[in-house]
Design goal:
nine-stranded mixed sheet, about 375 residues, Dihydrodipicolinate Reductase, domain 2, alpha/beta, homotetramer, six-stranded parallel sheet, Rossmann fold
């Protein structure tokens, strides 16, 4: 059977440009039964030297240095947005108007207003879309979703998550520009809230439903840093750390924390759900494992189970190796790419869509508002 | 050398009566070099049958059924208060007036007002005193204190702690009375805040200094339960769960959570401190271990160290067995008892004193106020 | 009800003298329902200064410096042997002839010949006896026994155990004499085989039945050490390390290892049993946990369970604290003491008896023979 | 710079065909600086339908059904052998004679005699070669090698490794044929010895040097199984389980075990090295971590470090993502492929070569001999 080709135009060539490109490249190898298959038609960013190298490395057929040109091209079916946050809205809206499918890196945008325009443009255009909240598709996380969906947990009491890093502790680290735009609020929109907590919130809403109201605290530990683009020491406007608690619509309580100042943690994204009958927890540093406690187990034999989520009957794992042989971070992007192409077959949405991601954005905005006003905020 | 005897009068014979009695009993065996030694002179509570059995089991020389009588006895040097929270204040104040040394189970009292009266009475009487926040004297926790004191952590950014249990999830569990007074707000003062978070706060202040302001959320999941003493279904007034964040005086951020609805956790008291140079974490379920991350370790060899705190040069451990052989929960009480007798030799305080515990009480009160008013509160 | 008193005469005041003394002392506190109760009537060893201090510390009513005198005393019901291995046989045989109950520290003796004489003497005398293979009575280990007895494991394929220490790596550590008799083969009989592997073998036979034949390797890494008693550098005759594999009577394979040269391990006694339907593993460094894998669990939810063996319905734990609050190494001795007194009520044996311990000794002897002859040996 | 192309001819399309194909495919993406690059020129196996699908899935330009034809083709530079063990020798020898580079799946062959012919043929032909003992190139394992090479461990006392699986416990599992040739001794040569212990031995020799002599035990738990190719119940000739101990040339002791009957373990390959000054351990189920104990750490702060081997300065990790984001099993093949192409630049060997693998084969043979004769065997 001849596969239908989807021509991808990738905008941006940073860390996320690499993860997405790898995702597309692996789909034919590991999901050979899909009816659709990606063609890496074009990649676009400004630095021409790096652009040629990137295209060669990942197998893109052509390059562009102006994203508007890429969007205008008739041979592009889908636009993948991997640029810094401040350009997501403009590109996505233009791509929607051009009728392209859109795959957008998270967070949707710098703030809720931008996000609203994007969601509206997508809705008006009616184009296929997805947002790369990739962690949903780590097999252990998908298993967590399946367990929740099965009802095994019973009434939910608690949801807690954190995302801890330590890479900005050094006070001499500059802000802004190449490799460090995440520390420039004008570009990123926020600090850990948009970058890290948005992941936690996306997973939380997916697993535990909508969030009603939040109360938050943020902190910027290092108040001034040299800006790489201006060469001057400038005020830092991002949040270095944020904690918030909240109430979910289902009556459970949420507790979230993120920071880039937790010495010893690199990318420690963990979540835990406590239900009346069972509990679940997961940790990105040991991503092939899911811990599960079932209160229905025989009394003397109750304990947290460490499930090594590598057997062939686990989500996605039938497409990889054999039991006991783990996969890595990058595979979450392969899975999302595969699911996107699958969604073209089925006609269903490839969640999270822009609309789904907008719900996450609302919580992020409420968190930042709450911290600024030192008061509870509805989402 | 003849040891000086300190006659102990214990009031209360529940779970804490047992832990304290065991503490006194073990001191001569494991801390033979102390100049002072306890004599279990009298135990006091109302149920006479149980009282006789308790005295026989633990070796008390005599019994009383009225605590006032016990306090009046000339042969009692020190009063140990293990009764439910609603009687702490009255007993402690009377004991102070009688010039007795006082060892009081935590929390100090049901609320800040009661606590204030106790602290004032103690100060007026000038009697030796200590409060049984026992976790400070788990060797791994004492080691944590020593590491903090050494300055190895550098500037502190984060402190987080939780105390998770699951024993009240059953909606048919009654409240109040024998074994369940902790669920009756009239007796306990509060729920998890006074019972569990007070432990977390005591350790936090000890390790990381004073707390400036807090913002909290509480929840009572099961709104009504049968009361054992009245036989009627009554409203539940305790907090089943509480989360709060805060700012410490040293500029670090705190995040705390406690609940009795975290399925799968029995007594999961954990804390973690993140400093610029090093981090520490501890978990009551594996109490002989302390985890330590040192950013000064050689680059490729950095990792969280799991320190099995059982060698003879670790705090208290020279008095126990040999490396690798762990001790248990109860030993924290033995250590506090030993330190109390040691403090009689040195003339120093046996922390935490009533004054120290009052600081914890202030934070507890601010937490409850904050949750009730949905706003930040100073401590 | 008046308890019946059993007068204990303890011989030896080293590490094991302390663990046994503590065991007796705790029994009345934590096992108050027993019909029999120990009286610490006398302790015996040669250093008079230390002897007085030891008696005072642990509450012995009297002292002896000659064990023969202690055995002759009419007011001694039970003799507890905690001396170095080379005196076990002589003392035990004399105590048996005197009609005393005997509690003997493991291993039974230096070799099989001595052990045989002891077993025969005990049998002839018909006295109550037990050997302190204490690890059977760690609650998690007793739970393991209960799981095995339930048949949940199915056909057993593998049993593996190790006991790893690192305290003799230093080549300048002397041998023999105070604190170091375990390194003198003339006193100890062997090195890790008798000291550590004997524990592993006792547990193995208890959990998995008899051992048919063994093949072993031993090594003495440091060939000569200064002897503390002679002041001379002498050849070292103990085994520093030993590995052996074996076949159990039930058809399963065994693999055992012990060493005092495993840097980083203090007292890492672990065992694992693999059955067709389920597996179990345990680790002395985290002694309150038992890991359990049940192949009957729902397919996607299979995983090793970490059972925190602290709930009141777990073996022995109803006598201690509340769920989540662990106990320590020393408690295994309290449990064996309690079980010994219980056995006086029931008339049953308090396993392991001398006869049971003799089976372990047979395996130890076969292991040493096998290593010496580089061939398989039957047990 | 134009890369030099190496045309690969892959023989075999099973599990290993997939891992190798993925390895080649990823090299250009993640190791873009190499001077050589693979071209997937041809794949060869007998089932034509599957062959076409395999070629399409992995991007092979052409197919062959007769491996002799593939070897004859002038446009093939390198032959990759992924067939069952019984064909390795014939193919490798033919490929060597044809002057092809050879990449051969482990183990080298069914037995030492076949292996000897292969090594000789390779030596005579002087062709570039490597054997896919892939675990060496898990970053944490390579880090272990670097630590050993640094001398940090000091004198080595112990090396232990095991490889535990549970997939053949079911007595109704057939043997031989599609998917199950590993259970047919005529094809595989042996059971766990060649399949699993060979990995452990390869790593051991690499990390700890040569093995002098071994003593082994093997067992076949299920004596007869239905053979898929004959349809008859036939005797099983493979070893289901094997344990052995050994002495290394450096004086350290080794202990190894492998089985397919360890319920609860999927691919639990672990190793541990104990040196006088430091120790290391690793576990395939958590492959991004290396545990390290350094006795030189400050006394109270010694503990096993859990190194999350994901920072950019760790072996191979600069080519992947960012700290904290793990990789998987498959990456070990990508690394070996990349190192093979790198070796074409440098002219050095890409270890393990056939010659290196022959050393492993010698130990395997000694192990099987030892088990058969119940005696020690030199390697």
């Amino acid at each position: 059977m001849e596969k239908k080709k989807i021509n991808i135009g990738l905008i941006g060539g940073g860390f996320m440009g690499r993860t997405h490109s790898n995702g597309y490249n692996r789909v034919p190898n590991f999901f050979p039964d899909l009816a659709f298959t990606p063609v890496l038609k074009a990649v676009c960013f400004r630095n021409e030297t790096k652009l040629k190298a990137f295209a060669a490395q990942w197998g893109y057929e052509s390059t562009e240095t102006d994203w508007r040109k890429l969007i205008e091209r008739d041979d592009i079916d889908a636009v993948d947005i991997c640029t810094p946050n401040d350009t997501h809205a403009e590109i996505a809206i233009a791509a929607a108007k051009a009728g392209k499918m859109i795959l957008c890196e998270k967070p949707l945008a710098r703030d809720l207003a931008e996000s609203k325009q994007m969601v509206d443009a997508i809705a008006a255009a009616g184009v296929k879309n997805t947002v790369w909240y990739n962690y949903r598709r780590i097999p252990a996380v998908t298993l967590a979703k399946n367990i929740v969906a099965s009802g095994k947990l019973g009434k939910i009491y608690h949801y807690r998550a954190n995302f801890l890093q330590d890479w900005t502790i050094n006070e001499n680290l500059p802000q802004g520009g190449e490799g460090l735009w995440r520390m420039d609020a004008a570009v990123a929109g926020s600090g850990v809230v948009g970058d890290l907590l948005s992941h936690c919130i996306d997973t939380a809403i997916w697993l535990n439903g909508g969030i009603q109201e939040v109360s938050a605290m943020t902190e910027t530990f290092v108040k001034q840093r040299m800006h790489q683009l201006t060469g001057k020491v400038e005020d830092v406007h991002i949040d270095d750390a944020c904690s918030f608690f909240c109430r979910f619509n289902n009556g459970s309580l949420g507790l979230f924390e993120s920071t880039r100042y937790a010495r010893g943690h690199k990318a420690l994204y963990t979540f835990e759900i406590n239900g009346a009958n069972a509990s679940i927890r997961w940790d990105l540093h040991d991503l092939n494992r899911l811990e599960y406690f079932d209160n229905g187990d025989e009394s003397n034999l109750k304990g947290w189970r460490s499930i090594h989520v590598t057997d062939g009957d686990q989500p996605y794992m039938g497409n990889w190796w054999v039991p006991g042989l783990g996969i890595g971070y990058e595979h979450s992007f392969v899975h999302q790419a595969a699911d996107f192409f699958k969604s073209l077959e089925t006609g269903e949405d490839c969640a999270p869509t822009f609309k789904d991601a907008f719900e996450t954005q609302k919580v992020c905005e409420a968190v930042l508002d709450s911290a600024a006003t030192r008061s509870w905020k509805s989402c």
